[in-house]
Amino acid sequence: MAAGVAGANAASVILADEWKSYLQGFVTEDGRVVDTANNGISHSESQGYGLVLSVLADDRATFERVWSFTKTELMVRDDGLAGWRWDPAASPNLTDANNATDGDILIAYGLALAGDAWSETSFTDRAREIATTIGSSMLVEAHGMTAILPGAAGFNDRADGVGPVLNPSYWVFEALTAFAKLDPSIDWNAVSETGIELVRRARLSKTGLPPDWLVLNDDGTVRPAPDFPIEFGYNGIRIPLYMMRAGINPVLLEPFRQNSDAEGLYKIDPLTGERLEPISEPGYRLIVAAMDCISNGTVVPEELRTLSPTSYYAATLQLLTLDYLRRSQPSCMTQAAS
């Protein structure tokens, strides 16, 4: 599997205290992964991350709880994908049944990892079903490339004819590698190459960063999608993490490094370079520190080498980054790094 990913029988590198803090902060007893910075809702993305992290932490009991909630509360669509938004304050709780394909990808990936780690074919079979559905219904042609449609509705059926609207952070590269084994009838490598190509093409812009939501110009360059915020923000900050975990050419990390600093990442206007908002919780700062270590050997600051559970999203990305660094870049985590 891809760099930084737990295979069957691989020992967890997530520390017991870290995992306990994560569970206490963000996972309910019934398996709901709570987005604490978004009014306490849950979504297919949070449930998918919960599944992946449970396997990386080698915690099957939590995995079973998260999966039970996910399949009962979100997997209610006729196509077998997940409704994306679940609100504890609403009735019915599922307030948006449209899918979010990144959530579907993470759910399928978590199931695939679980099937591998615990030799449980039922998880593998369900992962294959979801991956096959994504491959048959959520891939779209974009200027000759095979792209991931962010959801079934609203991204390729616009009244203005603009589209498809794409989100580069939906390319979970390590998951696509796993999908190639689950369903080799689909060219998942071509899908991965499209994600990398979107990052390459964004390098031609003023900042070199892709907008969170983009469309392709006739010449193949990227521009912000109409009717979406013009920003590189909380979506896009995942892109360098996914690239590092999948072992993608580190040269492509440079625009992300150049638009960050020791204080962390930023929400940025990709057209002007204006910094709109700091994104500076420890989990986000660790992504910057990881890029710096890969690029020039700078050791990760000591205060970032263990989990600081601030918000759900920051803590999730921090655990994924810690897993990657401890497993694949251990020299980044010690003073011996050079």
UniProtKB/TrEMBL annotation:
It catalyses: Endohydrolysis of (1->4)-beta-D-glucosidic linkages in cellulose, lichenin and cereal beta-D-glucans. It is an enzyme of class 3 (hydrolase). Keywords: Carbohydrate metabolism, Cellulose degradation, Glycosidase, Hydrolase, Polysaccharide degradation. Its EC number is 3.2.1.4. InterPro entries: 6-hairpin_glycosidase_sf, 6hp_glycosidase-like_sf, Glyco_hydro_8. Belongs to the glycosyl hydrolase 8 (cellulase D) family. This is cellulase. It comes from Devosia psychrophila. The lineage of its organism: Bacteria, Pseudomonadati, Pseudomonadota, Alphaproteobacteria, Hyphomicrobiales.
